[in-house]
């Protein structure tokens, strides 16, 4: 069965790798060590320090900067048809120095194009942006959309942005006019409603609670209605909460439509038609429970497989989606739903629209 | 088909709700701005709130977030409990149906006989 992996985290070995892609004065700042990148505000407790313990990076961070290693351990080992590069260096995390953050996003995109996308036609690329400057983000989206492997805009979920706010509209406009999809991924800044908790275990369990508000915000503020061609991917944010959010939003919409009449469909319908959720980290539930959840969602079009390679909570495509699921449903989760989302065909080698950059 | 003389024409006003009983069943009446009288089941199809406590209003529209229009004054009945809205023109909710929830006001035929309002059940 074909497998498309919707969430793979490439990285650089050191932030200084971005220096050649930056204009001055930022090049000098990074080359000179003026900023050492984001630090995570907690210790990883997993044996691999945030990575799978069989994926070691030179600097000990939870990342992988070695394409050959990823090819051997992931792309070839699992015979993936495609892998979506989602990064984990998100300049939106900078809450100041917007020009610097925007330049970093562009530099990172150029770095990824050269060191990752160009090396393997199985890669699908994401545009990284500084979302705090939406107009600049839109320009970066316009710039990167020309790359044939780029299929989506990656919006990082930080602690202070709900993307439905009208100020972020230029980002969605740009994704829409470039026919890109929009994906959301957490960051080391993402929080639940009362912060990160007091333990890594708590912080990690709170991540879905940083994702639900994004769905609520996008629908309540009319982003789904304003851009009928856009579709939205929630990465690594859980999925078993979707029935609750759909039902709750439907109820709120019925009783509060007078305030938000720009919403033209039941939120549950918007979700089923336009929202996709990646499965990793799967909860260890039985095949029966998977099918109950899918039944509650009302469709098996929503779930999309991902590994989260190289991180410690990796899902193995051969084990994470139970084999007792109906073949057609398993195929949708492992391949079809994502292939349709990203507009990719069966064989990247024969695919004109998704070939390595020249 | 039974015809019930339920109240005087003058008892039914635009923007207001008048409750009558046919047997033990409550029915609420309101006059649309066009002059037609509507008679609907007195219990909300959602959880059964007594609609006589609801309000008749207009409703909002919008194609752009944070820009509201307002119209249909006198044609919308909002339930006193959860605020679901129904059109008194056709009894339909202002929101789309879902598979699990189809809500309709029960509409009764109304005739005017002299100064009497007659509801057909
Ligand atoms: S009972 Fe009328 S809206 Fe709930």
TrEMBL record, chain A:
<protein>
    <submittedName>
        <fullName>Amidohydrolase</fullName>
    </submittedName>
</protein>
<keyword id="KW-0378">Hydrolase</keyword>
<dbReference type="InterPro" id="IPR006680">
    <property type="entry name" value="Amidohydro-rel"/>
</dbReference>
<dbReference type="GO" id="GO:0005737">
    <property type="term" value="C:cytoplasm"/>
</dbReference>
<dbReference type="Pfam" id="PF04909">
    <property type="entry name" value="Amidohydro_2"/>
</dbReference>
<dbReference type="GO" id="GO:0016787">
    <property type="term" value="F:hydrolase activity"/>
</dbReference>
<dbReference type="GO" id="GO:0016831">
    <property type="term" value="F:carboxy-lyase activity"/>
</dbReference>
<feature type="domain" description="Amidohydrolase-related">
    <location>
        <begin position="66"/>
        <end position="343"/>
    </location>
</feature>
<dbReference type="InterPro" id="IPR032465">
    <property type="entry name" value="ACMSD"/>
</dbReference>
<keyword id="KW-0456">Lyase</keyword>
<dbReference type="GO" id="GO:0019748">
    <property type="term" value="P:secondary metabolic process"/>
</dbReference>
<dbReference type="InterPro" id="IPR032466">
    <property type="entry name" value="Metal_Hydrolase"/>
</dbReference>
From TrEMBL, chain B:
<keyword id="KW-0408">Iron</keyword>
<protein>
    <submittedName>
        <fullName>2Fe-2S ferredoxin</fullName>
    </submittedName>
</protein>
<keyword id="KW-0411">Iron-sulfur</keyword>
<dbReference type="GO" id="GO:0046872">
    <property type="term" value="F:metal ion binding"/>
</dbReference>
<feature type="domain" description="Rieske">
    <location>
        <begin position="4"/>
        <end position="119"/>
    </location>
</feature>
<dbReference type="InterPro" id="IPR017941">
    <property type="entry name" value="Rieske_2Fe-2S"/>
</dbReference>
<keyword id="KW-0479">Metal-binding</keyword>
<dbReference type="InterPro" id="IPR036922">
    <property type="entry name" value="Rieske_2Fe-2S_sf"/>
</dbReference>
<dbReference type="GO" id="GO:0051537">
    <property type="term" value="F:2 iron, 2 sulfur cluster binding"/>
</dbReference>
<keyword id="KW-0001">2Fe-2S</keyword>
<dbReference type="Pfam" id="PF00355">
    <property type="entry name" value="Rieske"/>
</dbReference>
């Amino acid at each position: 069965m074909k497998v498309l992996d919707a969430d793979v985290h490439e990285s650089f070995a050191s932030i200084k790798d971005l220096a050649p892609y930056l204009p001055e004065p930022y090049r000098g700042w990074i080359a000179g060590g003026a900023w050492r990148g984001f630090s995570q505000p907690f210790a990883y407790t997993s044996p691999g320090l945030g990575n799978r313990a069989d994926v070691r990076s030179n600097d000990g961070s939870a990342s992988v900067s070695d394409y050959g290693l990823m090819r051997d351990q992931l792309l070839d080992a699992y015979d993936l048809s495609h892998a979506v590069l989602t990064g984990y260096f998100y300049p939106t995390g900078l809450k100041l120095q917007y020009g610097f953050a925007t330049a970093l996003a562009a530099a990172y995109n150029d770095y990824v194009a050269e060191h990752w996308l160009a090396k393997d036609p199985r890669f699908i690329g994401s545009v990284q942006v500084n979302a705090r400057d939406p107009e600049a983000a839109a320009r970066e989206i316009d710039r990167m959309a020309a790359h044939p492997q780029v299929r989506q805009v990656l919006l990082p979920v930080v602690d202070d942005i709900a993307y439905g706010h009208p100020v972020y509209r230029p980002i969605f406009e740009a994704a829409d006019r470039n026919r890109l999809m929009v994906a959301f991924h957490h960051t080391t800044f993402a929080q639940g409603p009362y912060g990160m908790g007091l333990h890594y275990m708590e912080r990690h369990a709170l991540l879905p609670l940083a994702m639900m508000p994004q769905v609520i915000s996008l629908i309540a503020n009319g982003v789904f209605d304003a851009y009928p061609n856009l579709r939205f991917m929630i990465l690594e944010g859980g999925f078993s909460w979707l029935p609750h959010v759909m039902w709750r939003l439907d109820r709120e919409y019925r009783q509060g439509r007078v305030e938000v009449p720009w919403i033209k469909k039941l939120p549950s319908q918007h979700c089923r038609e336009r929202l996709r959720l990646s499965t990793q980290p799967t909860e260890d539930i039985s095949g029966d429970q998977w099918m109950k959840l899918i039944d509650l969602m009302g469709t098996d079009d929503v779930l999309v497989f991902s590994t989260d390679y190289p991180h410690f909570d990796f899902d193995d495509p051969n084990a994470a989606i139970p084999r007792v699921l109906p073949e057609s449903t398993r195929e949708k989760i492992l391949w079809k739903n994502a292939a349709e989302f990203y507009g990719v065909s069966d064989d990247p080698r024969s695919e004109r629209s998704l070939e390595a950059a020249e | 088909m039974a015809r019930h003389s339920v109240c005087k024409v003058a008892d039914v006003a635009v923007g207001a709700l008048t409750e009558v009983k046919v047997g033990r069943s409550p029915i609420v009446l309101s006059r649309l701005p066009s002059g037609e009288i509507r008679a609907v089941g007195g219990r909300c199809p959602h959880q059964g709130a007594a609609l006589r406590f609801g309000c008749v209003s207009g409703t909002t529209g919008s194609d752009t977030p944070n820009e509201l229009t307002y119209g249909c004054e006198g044609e919308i009945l909002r339930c006193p409990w959860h605020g679901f809205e129904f059109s008194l023109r056709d009894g339909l909710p202002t929101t789309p149906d879902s598979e699990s929830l189809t809500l309709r006001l029960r509409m009764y035929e109304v005739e005017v006989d002299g100064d009497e309002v007659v509801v057909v059940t």
